[in-house]
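Researcher: Let's run the pair from yesterday's discussion. Sequence first, then tokens, for each.
Model: Starting with the first of the pair.
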Amino acid sequence: MAVNPTGADMKAFLAEDPDQPIVMLNLLRFAEDGEARYDEYAAHFRETAAEYGAEVLYFGRGLAPVVAEPGQEWDAVLLVSYPSRRAFSDMVRDPAYQDGTHLRTQALVEATLQPTVPR
């Protein structure tokens, strides 16, 4: 399963509306001992993300689901507000951010990154 966006993913993401503010929904499934590694990544992420106007709105551990198909439960949920799609894209291309992405990759076996907008 993929845990990081590809170049094609980012191109499609920016094609929609590069200046649109978003809240990125992160659904995370940890590798064995991945939670501690993800905490290291989260500390690195917060340092870099602030430079792009990103703000962690919520980071929580998943509990037993009330309604879910088998395999749909997640270990953690993260919501991050970005001032624009472009800000997210610029951040993930930043070498300072990329220096810590190995922590995220090692921490996860599966992830969903889904941009959302208010209704």
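Model: Moving on to the second of the pair.
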Amino acid sequence: MPTPTSSPSPTSPQRTRLRHAARLAAAFAITLTVTACARLATVDSNALWKIVDIRCVPSQQATGTPGQCTRVDLEKRYVILKDIVGRSQYLLIPTDRITGIESPLILAPHAQDYWVDAWGSRHDVEQSVKRTLPDNLLGLEINSPYRRSQNQLHIHIDCMRRDVSLALGRHAKDAPGQWHWDTIDGRRYRIMRVTSLSQAGNPFRIVARDNQDAEAMATQTILVTGAGPSADTDGWLILNSGIDVDDGSGSAEGLMDHACRVADAP
């Protein structure tokens, strides 16, 4: 039986070419992965749910690490995921199958206060931009199903546009619990200052008071931001609009700044 012969060792120029080829292949693989993720989000309305249910939660349960997510809270039943869009945008996503703002599950008696959890996760935004920001320059937002690509509830967590924050300053001292209509960035919103985001102050419950079925809730968008630099003392502003409102909107995401330019200001 012939004795196998070893392949000759590559010369130094060959090794250089091989290393270069390997780097190119790795870079190409990374590009394909990122592109595939972006494409997945646009063509698969269940992409976020699959990330949570197949990658993040099982990883946390098996290894104690969050997998593709930034954080997994099994007790409170949500994950925090860095969005592929933007410098500092994060998403809070329930670990339960909840389609979105229109789901009756968000109004169940013992439903999780996702807005409280999302607000507590604003520090992930600050870590991304390596700067502490006043609460009125940070925001949370959820879109109507008519203005979203994903059918798993997700709350956007990111920076606010500075011009929007300045415009909202006129509501910083509004009496809590009362709606005031205003035009912000060319769209009509009703705005309420609250002193808590939990229980009766839960934005889902507040908006649902006069949108009492899934069909009505499905037309709504909600944005939450600090009423002033410290929400603990100044409270929060809830912005609400709907696609059935004259000059209204099913999305308030445009009031946020996924480039977080406020973090670069002196």
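Researcher: Give me one sentence on the second I can quote.
Model: The longest strand covers residues 187-194.
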